[in-house]
Amino acid sequence: QVQLVESGGGSVQAGGSLRLSCAASRYTYSCMGWFRQAPGKEREGVAVIDSIGTTRYADSVKGRFTASKDNAKNTLYLQMNSLKPEDTAMYYCAATLRVCRGGLWREYEYSYWGQGTQVTVSS
């Protein structure tokens, strides 16, 4: 059974930091990404990593969030610094076995999803 398991979410004050992890099992995924969904809003892409490790970010998180992948541990990370209340959302890890360049921003391009981890930022 393919699994993506997120962890690391929690509650922090504005300006704080959190590090999310996404442990992947069974396969080494080629393209992965972090998405988030706030209450009443559509899910949106936050950061994506392509097949050669290139990362790209949504404008709203550039300079504050850093995505990385440890291939040996088959784990995707999202370091979130300078958190803002508007970062409050459920964060999801997504993965696909297909090769990609530049990262994948559309939800339908990912075959596998984690269950999500909640991030709450208070002002």
Describe the protein.
It is a single chain. With 123 residues, the chain is mainly β. The chain has strands at 3-7, 10-13, 18-25, 31-37, 44-49, 55-57, 65-70, 75-80, 89-96, 112-113, 117-122. Strands 2, 4, 5, 6, 9, 10 and 11 form a 7-stranded mixed β-sheet that branches. Strands 1-3-8-7 form a 4-stranded antiparallel β-sheet, with no helix packed on it. The radius of gyration is 13 Å and the shape is globular. The chain starts with a strand and ends with a strand.
Helix/strand class? mainly beta
Ranges where pLDDT stays below 50 over 5 or more residues in a row are: none
Round the Cα radius of gyration to an integer and report it: 13 Å
Total number of helices: 0
Number of strands: 11
End-to-end Cα distance? 40 Å
Sequence of secondary-structure elements = EEEEEEEEEEE
The biggest beta sheet reads: 7 strands, mixed
Q: How would you briefly describe this protein structure?
A:
With 123 residues, this protein is mostly beta strands. It has strands at 3-7, 10-13, 18-25, 31-37, 44-49, 55-57, 65-70, 75-80, 89-96, 112-113, 117-122.
Describe the secondary-structure layout.
Elements: E1 3-7, E2 10-13, E3 18-25, E4 31-37, E5 44-49, E6 55-57, E7 65-70, E8 75-80, E9 89-96, E10 112-113, E11 117-122
Parallel strand pairs: 2-11
Antiparallel strand pairs: 1-3, 3-8, 4-5, 4-9, 5-6, 7-8, 9-10, 9-11
Question: What attributes characterize this protein structure?
Answer:
single chain, 123 residues, mainly beta, 7-stranded mixed β-sheet, 4-stranded antiparallel β-sheet, 11 strands
